[in-house]
């Protein structure tokens, strides 16, 4: 044995596997923990790979084998690039460079502009395009192509719906105004089409700009080789082929897949931490089962490093087996989850799921690395103990937990308390983040300081025991006190499950209620006209009798530049035309919202405080099309949840555009009369923008689903560890039976221990979650209790109690079915 131990890394494989065969129950617990964790990590990995590699393919520009466009993203150092949600134009004169590249047959500048066909039977906006790309892609035209500024080609489906034919005239409204066009042709290419010069004018581009360049390769040419030549000739631009062209043609799809990557990475980080936490708990039980064997190994010359390697080898072997079903289950769950994302509108329909060996290898690496770290950490104490001390601790745990560990735990508990109370002093999203993270901080602190705290609690309970105390209760309290470390491990994980569930549910519902309350208080418009609204429409509407003001509003995104390296944060934003104070009460804090025009912005008071700026200062922003601006802050406002962190003056937005809606102060009937003559415009009484949430948003549902999945994993991991820990107590049960305890009394003792564990865990979990959620309700809504479905609290607590009871009572009953002599003989 000693010579084999001295053989090093390979020499530990034999003892590892030999000991593993004799301790399969503990390794089964490890395997189950790994399988569940691998499934969750696989979901995140598949989603991330899907976001990075999957594309829907082009539609209108299918016949153009290559598309050249701007990169459509802001590069962030050492992080994921942020996508631009609006088109960044490129130099149309680059067509000359493109056509000179070997293998290129033809190229055309593609220009897109929003339009509204003012025909009674049409509904909503339509895309307009320059005819050049339609000609390049072989669009069939019945009639002729547009050749002048007043000529139009319409796709056959739109023409049929509007009752138009070649030779008719049509009124077309764009953000630049309304004009009459002569229809000179019908085509199979979707949308309406003008000549290139007219399309540029309607899109607000100068004569040297385009949205992208469509390229047709020569027949028989290697498209990928031609694309590579274009990349060399056009550095800094995006050259795409195949299905990736769809992301260039349809920016919304590219933005959605980029968001998918960010969400998957955020999920993966949390999941890996949970897997480490649960796996470490299962490994701790496995190590405890082998303390005597490990002590004997130390006695015959094994070094601490070899002991840790032995445990890590066992854990890795169990993990390798468990990875197969875990990854398979994760692949299935990933398909179900992406289906939900598609149904909720978060992902475009038809996006293929990426199931490649890459995600499998990443999952295997992350899981095995996590298992290795957890195994070595679990074996650290026993590997360092002298052989005699290790044998002494084989059945009884150490009496005094580490002082440093306990001190760190108490500090974290104090920090969590401070975090929970921050919403009373600091408003805004910072308070939500602080309250939500307080639960995790508290659970970690409790896991570290738990043995001392539980020891003190059970010691106090033990003092109340007397001769009248039933034997099962007496034994349960004494056992919980003597094995405070074992009890604390189970309590910490159960408390994590309870606290995590309650925190995530009520954080989401509280956020929704706060947002809805701020929108209800701040949206004061008398009517809302939704649809493609132009600047001319606003002017006409405002001139109507009975209308006091009409303010256009458009949704967009902005990025705030954080440092000189280019790091940035993205924010959803609303842009208003002048007069926002007449249709929305944002709760002005400083400055004057009447000054929100020209190159100005308004910030929520929380964002301004966080950024260290105020009215009169300038802030560096990047607009949705990549334009860098430094607007002046006109005002700050209090209702940042309802109206967002940033509100822009519409003058800042580049290029002509339709507004999403017009918010109107005045008589709603006057707005309805006006809209009756404008196709595609709907009118609602009151303010419909921003829309007050009636429930949780898709983002919040996704977050909740991910949280519930992780909570389920934590609960299963807890049950797994409790079953393994209870099965390990056969020697204890045998000793009790040997001194006269009946099987019924032992089962009663175990049930009461389970209830003690569950009671402490539920109490801790509620303290770590209900307190910060109640403080959130008090700080934001003036109601000192969690905002949302209160039944979640007893339901979560009941599940935790039932799980703790079942995971200890069932294996104890099975062990006690063995006759006492056989049970005693089965103990190592």
From TrEMBL:
It comes from Glycomyces rhizosphaerae. Keywords: Cell membrane, Membrane, Transmembrane, Transmembrane helix. PANTHER family: INNER MEMBRANE PROTEIN (PTHR30287:SF1), MEMBRANE COMPONENT OF PREDICTED ABC SUPERFAMILY METABOLITE UPTAKE TRANSPORTER (PTHR30287). Residues 266-385, 710-820 form the ABC3 transporter permease C-terminal domain. This is ABC transporter permease. It is found in: Cell membrane. The keyword Transmembrane helix applies. It is a multi-pass membrane protein. The chain crosses the membrane at residues 260-289, 310-334, 354-375, 407-426, 432-458, 488-507, 701-723, 754-778, 790-812. InterPro entries: ABC3_permease_C, Membrane_comp_ABC_pdt. It holds the Pfam family FtsX.
């Amino acid at each position: 044995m000693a010579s084999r131990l001295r053989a090093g890394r390979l020499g530990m494989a034999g003892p590892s596997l030999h000991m593993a065969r004799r301790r399969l129950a503990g390794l089964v617990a490890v395997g189950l923990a790994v399988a569940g964790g691998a499934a969750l990590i696989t979901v995140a990995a598949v989603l991330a790979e899907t976001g990075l590699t999957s594309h829907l393919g082009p539609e209108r520009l299918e016949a153009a084998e290559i598309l050249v466009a701007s990169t459509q993203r802001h590069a962030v150092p050492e992080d994921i690039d942020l996508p631009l949600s609006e088109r960044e134009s490129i130099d149309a004169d680059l067509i000359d460079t493109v056509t000179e590249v070997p293998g290129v047959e033809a190229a055309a500048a593609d220009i897109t502009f929003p339009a509204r066909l003012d025909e009674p039977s049409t509904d909503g906006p339509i895309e307009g395009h320059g005819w050049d790309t339609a000609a390049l892609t072989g669009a069939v035209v019945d009639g002729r192509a547009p050749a002048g500024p007043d000529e139009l080609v319409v796709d056959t489906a739109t023409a049929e719906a509007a009752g138009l034919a070649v030779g008719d005239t049509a009124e077309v409204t764009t953000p630049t105004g309304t004009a009459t066009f002569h229809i000179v042709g019908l085509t199979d290419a979707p949308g309406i089409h003008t000549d290139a010069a007219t399309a540029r004018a309607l899109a607000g581009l100068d004569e040297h700009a385009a949205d992208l360049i469509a390229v047709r390769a020569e027949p028989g040419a290697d498209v990928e080789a031609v694309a590579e030549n274009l990349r060399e000739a056009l550095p800094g631009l995006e050259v795409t082929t195949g299905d990736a062209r769809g992301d260039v043609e349809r920016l919304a799809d590219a933005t959605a897949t980029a968001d998918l990557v960010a969400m998957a990475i955020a999920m993966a980080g949390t999941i890996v931490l949970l897997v480490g936490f649960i796996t470490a708990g299962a490994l701790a039980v496995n190590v405890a089962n082998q303390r005597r064997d490990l002590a004997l190994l130390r006695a015959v010359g094994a070094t601490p490093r070899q002991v840790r390697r032995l445990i890590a080898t066992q854990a890795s072997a169990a993990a390798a087996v468990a990875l197969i079903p875990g990854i398979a289950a994760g692949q299935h769950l990933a398909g179900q989850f992406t289906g939900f994302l598609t149904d909720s509108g978060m992902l475009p329909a038809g996006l293929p799921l990426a199931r490649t060996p890459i995600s499998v290898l990443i999952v295997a690496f992350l899981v095995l690395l996590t298992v290795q770290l957890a195994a070595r950490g679990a074996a650290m104490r026993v590997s360092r103990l002298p052989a005699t001390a290790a044998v002494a601790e084989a059945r009884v745990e150490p009496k005094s937990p580490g002082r440093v560990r306990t001190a760190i735990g108490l500090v974290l508990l104090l920090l969590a308390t401070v975090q929970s109370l921050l919403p009373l002093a600091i408003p805004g999203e910072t308070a939500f983040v602080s309250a939500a993270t307080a639960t995790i901080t508290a659970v970690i602190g409790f896991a570290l300081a738990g043995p001392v705290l539980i020891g003190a609690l059970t010691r106090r309970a033990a003092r109340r025991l007397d001769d009248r105390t039933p034997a099962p209760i007496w034994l349960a309290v004494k056992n919980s006190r003597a094995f405070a470390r074992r009890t604390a491990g189970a309590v910490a994980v159960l408390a994590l499950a309870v606290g995590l569930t309650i925190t995530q549910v009520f954080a989401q519902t509280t956020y929704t209620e706060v947002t809805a309350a701020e929108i209800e208080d701040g949206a004061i418009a008398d009517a809302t006209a939704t649809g493609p609204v132009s600047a001319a429409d606003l002017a006409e509407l405002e001139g109507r009798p009975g209308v006091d003001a009409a303010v256009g509003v458009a949704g967009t995104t902005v990025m705030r530049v954080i440092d000189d390296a280019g790091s940035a944060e993205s924010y959803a934003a609303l842009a208003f035309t002048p007069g926002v104070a007449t249709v929305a009460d944002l709760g002005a804090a400083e400055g004057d919202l009447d000054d929100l025009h020209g190159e100005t912005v308004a910030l929520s008071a929380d964002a301004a405080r966080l950024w260290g700026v105020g009215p009169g200062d300038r802030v560096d922003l990047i607009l949705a099309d990549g334009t860098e601006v430094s607007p002046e802050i006109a005002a700050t406002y209090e209702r940042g949840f309802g109206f967002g962190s940033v509100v822009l003056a519409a003058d800042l937005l580049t290029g002509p555009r339709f507004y999403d809606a017009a918010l109107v102060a005045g008589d709603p009937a006057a707005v309805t009369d006006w809209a009756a003559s404008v196709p595609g415009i709907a009118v609602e009484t009151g303010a419909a923008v921003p829309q007050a949430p009636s429930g949780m948003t898709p983002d919040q549902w996704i977050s909740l689903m991910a949280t519930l999945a992780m909570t389920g994993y934590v609960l299963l991991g807890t049950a797994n560890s409790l079953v393994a820990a209870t099965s390990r107590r056969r020697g204890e049960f045998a000793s009790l039976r040997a001194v006269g305890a009946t099987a019924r009394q032992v089962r009663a003792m175990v049930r009461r221990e389970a209830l003690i564990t569950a009671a402490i865990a539920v109490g801790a979990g509620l303290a770590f979650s209900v307190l910060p959620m109640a403080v959130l309700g008090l700080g934001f809504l003036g109601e000192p209790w969690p905002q949302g479905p209160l039944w979640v609290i007893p339901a979560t607590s009941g599940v935790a109690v039932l799980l703790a009871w079942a995971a200890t009572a069932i294996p104890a009953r099975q062990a006690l079915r063995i006759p006492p002599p056989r049970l005693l003989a089965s103990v190592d």
